[in-house]
Amino acid sequence: MNEFSLIENFFADCTQKREDVALAVGDDCALMTVPPGCELAVSIDTLVAGVHFTAEVDSAALGHKALTVGLSDLAAMGAEPAWATLALTLPELDRAWLAGFTQGLSKLARSYGVQLVGGDTTRGPLAVTMQLHGFVPRGKALRRDGARPGDGIYVTGTLGDSGLALQARLEGLQLSQEALCYVEHRLDWPQPRVHEALALRPLAHAAIDISDGLAADLGHILKGSGVGAAVEVEALPLSDSFRASLELEQAWALALTAGDDYELCVTAPAEYHDRIQAVLSDRGCPCTLIGTIEEEPGFRCRRRNGASFIPQQQGYRHF
Amino acid sequence: MNEFSLIENFFADCTQKREDVALAVGDDCALMTVPPGCELAVSIDTLVAGVHFTAEVDSAALGHKALTVGLSDLAAMGAEPAWATLALTLPELDRAWLAGFTQGLSKLARSYGVQLVGGDTTRGPLAVTMQLHGFVPRGKALRRDGARPGDGIYVTGTLGDSGLALQARLEGLQLSQEALCYVEHRLDWPQPRVHEALALRPLAHAAIDISDGLAADLGHILKGSGVGAAVEVEALPLSDSFRASLELEQAWALALTAGDDYELCVTAPAEYHDRIQAVLSDRGCPCTLIGTIEEEPGFRCRRRNGASFIPQQQGYRHF
Predict the structure, then answer these.
(1) Interchain CB contact of A26 with B (< 8 Å)
(2) CATH for A3-137, among 1.10.3470.10, 1.10.287.950, 3.30.1330.10, 2.30.40.10?
(3) CATH number of the domain at A152-302, please?
(4) Which of A15, A223, B63, B147 could form a disulfide with A116 if both were Cys (CB 3.0 to 4.6 A apart)?
């Protein structure tokens, strides 16, 4: 079997057909149409074996996660997902592995109406690159440079669960069976906040997804917007499993710095607080006010009593 | 230095700014606008060290080639290039290597008006994934399924030079210094046939770029279009260096099967022969009639005297 039939067999029909795709897998390029009045939003990300995941990871989970990473970037811009392309590098042709990968990818793709329109399959060290493509009405994207002093800082879901799972998996941290089961599911099967982002788009000033840790990612908003932030650590949303597994100060530090959460961090005017709670509680998604954008540059973490809190870890850096 | 500043330092300003790019490197997604009436054409390709190139290759040549691969796919659809995204996996942070890579990429990007709009930089085994994005007026793309019996089969430039360079580099085939110099330049610094493709678009029925060898790539047109082809081996366009380095039958076999040419293969109605020659000779690009599309399926190579010619090699297969 050669690379062409590999692509055709496993990927050509794994996702739904969209009407805006004139030509998908099987020619030199895919051909698609962007709706009038919309900008095209694109994001490309690579997951490398041994760096972003261990080679033993379930291939369905990897297919799911590779798509989540890109969908989460689209969510962070308030963009509606449309198409994906996949560049897959494999050390060998393992049909069972590929079938699992395709299943994990296609199930999530179908649930967000995403069509896989093109790809490239090569031999080499295991790595997955996906590019996601979405639409956003012209000028309406949520950017990193829109935060303003006085904005509330919100995060969806809970923070740190994936980081805790990584500590258990890579560093041997002991967790209860229940907690381990919960946080491993959060690590391996993260859910992108696509619908939540679309609901927040008319209300928010700025947004980012939390892939490198809240402190690092909120830091990008602060730098992009030329502002600072005060965050109250007692307000950080933590899952029961997470809370039960760590001392409180450890928990705050990990929630501030652990990557792979794929939750959203948004800033929005204080007067939208009730509307934000309303649109997200409709979707069953917690959305927690954790702090305030301030004029003075810098990222300030505080206890409720006003004392500074300085986390020890930093977001993951490749170099 | 972390991955963020890596992207910002080396790539953010390496290409020209386009007016249709609202937001480039530095947010969760890039935001762009496709012109009204146009389809978006996209192609993603990965080059892996040890598979597609040797680790010693000049990094400027690698940056050039990674972009050429995608530009050549756009050319094969008759699409006008616009934007690129880059997912770069590096074993270590080598500033001199990166500076060379960026220079090779950016010089070619500027010459085709391509802006690098986004990327991801990760640590891992050396690999380069690029996605190219271009525009084509709705319904006007050159596809693989448009060839019709009676069409002439044309190829741009010359065939097999890169394959000959690979034989010299990997298998120790001895070439004259002049021939080696010529074919290595063709292998390492291929030129995508973008302008030629745009000139051919109104005239051609089908097109593909020759990246896996003429026989394999023309085979995709034949399969996609449900037709066959007769090709006359004496008509295959060969460079002087190539011709001087091989016995005639070896030369034909390599010209039919060697990859990495990045020339175009197009089919077009016989009555457009003179117009095809005219539009390409204006650009100084040879365009050679090598055969005819026939109703009977299959790929038939013939000598001028009518005898069959069966090449021994096949296009490169990863698996």
Answers:
(1) yes
(2) 3.30.1330.10
(3) 3.90.650.10
(4) A15
**Cβ–Cβ below 8 Å for A224 and B125:** no
Whole-angstrom distance, CA of residue B218 vs CA of residue B209? 9
Q: How many CB atoms lie within 10 A of CB B135?
A: 19
Q: How many CB atoms lie within 10 A of CB A9?
A: 15
Annotate A191-207 with DSSP letters as a single string: ---HHHHHHHTTT-SEE
Shortest distance, CA B124 to any CA of chain A (angstroms):
6
Question: Running DSSP on this structure, what letter comes out for residue A260?
Answer: -
Distances from the Cα of B78 to the Cαs of A34, B85, B157, in angstroms? 19, 20, 17
Name the minimum distance, in Å, from the CA of A229 to any CA of chain B: 19
Instruction: State yes or no: A120 annotated in a binding site.
Output: yes
Q: Residue B22: which residues within 8 A CB-CB, separation 6 or more? A: A39, A141, B31, B32, B33
Instruction: Outline which parts of chain B fall under CATH 3.30.1330.10.
Output: 3-137
What is the location of CATH 3.90.650.10 in chain B? 152-302
Chain B residues lying within 8 Å of A37, measured CB to CB? none
Tell me the pLDDT tens digit for each residue of A102-140: 999 999 999 999 999 998 999 999 999 999 999 999 999
Q: What is the ipTM of this complex?
A: 0.90
DSSP code for B233: G
